[in-house]
Amino acid sequence: MPSFSTILKSLALATVLNLASASPIELAPRAVPTTACKPVIKPTAAAPTVPASGNDPDLPTTDLALQYVAIGRGTQNYTCAGAGANSSATGAIATLYDVTSLAYANINMVNAMPPNVVTMPVPAPGSTLMTTAGPVPALGNHYFDAASTPTFNLSSAGKILYGKKSGDVLAPAGANAGPAGTGAVDWLQLVAKPAPYVSNGVSLVYRVETAGGMPPACTKAETLIVQYAAEYWFYN
Ligand SMILES: *[C@@H]1O[C@H](CO)[C@@H](O)[C@H](O)[C@H]1NC(C)=O
Ligand SMILES: *[C@@H]1O[C@H](CO)[C@@H](O)[C@H](O)[C@H]1NC(C)=O
Ligand SMILES: *[C@@H]1O[C@H](CO)[C@@H](O)[C@H](O)[C@H]1NC(C)=O
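That is the input. Now the predicted structure with 2-acetamido-2-deoxy-beta-D-glucopyranose docked in place:
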């Protein structure tokens, strides 16, 4: 049995060995980064890739850099001229919630959100979106301007995109049909609308992983408001 002093000696030796094996960089005082105290806005890991719809051809690809991934929650609006008519789309209104960091960390959790949040009430303005991954802060708003231009006002980032559709494919067959059971709206790509529109900081967006938003059949002259949720991927 080793004596008490033998144990002490071996512990001391172990400490010396640990110190000796530690790298000099670890022992040097740490440089204070100039960005200290600023929140980390963008992860440094490789950007996630926008989901594929499975259509052939699928939406056009992009070489631009991913800026934001957002969950949109709102309504798609339609008008019906009468029973048996085809409804016509009159625009959409939605709040965008910032899930960029989560998209880098766990895209599967983000992809699970639209079918989940589409069944929940639209949060009050200024409120966070409650998700299975916790509360998500607002990034901005999506709406159609007076000239029916799809607009993405990323107000909390000071960026804006006036869109023009550049790609349109059907949602996958298994997409969530929404609370009304009417089906998932198409997956889209939109680019920046030319002058006089001036987008800023974002120049392309995809709408993917849609849940709900398709209109029911027209049964009379009326305005239809259909709940939907989707992912919006912004690039620049
Ligand atoms: C509705 O749209 C379909 C497909 O575009 C077309 O074939 C049909 O004639 C339209 N129906 C009416 C009532 O306009
Ligand atoms: C769509 O419906 C919402 C109500 O859910 C309304 O606030 C909005 O003004 C409508 N937008 C359009 C473009 O019709
Ligand atoms: C974008 O949203 C912010 C905050 O609501 C608002 O102050 C700003 O006027 C909006 N910008 C445009 C171009 O609508």
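Residues 8-37 form one domain.
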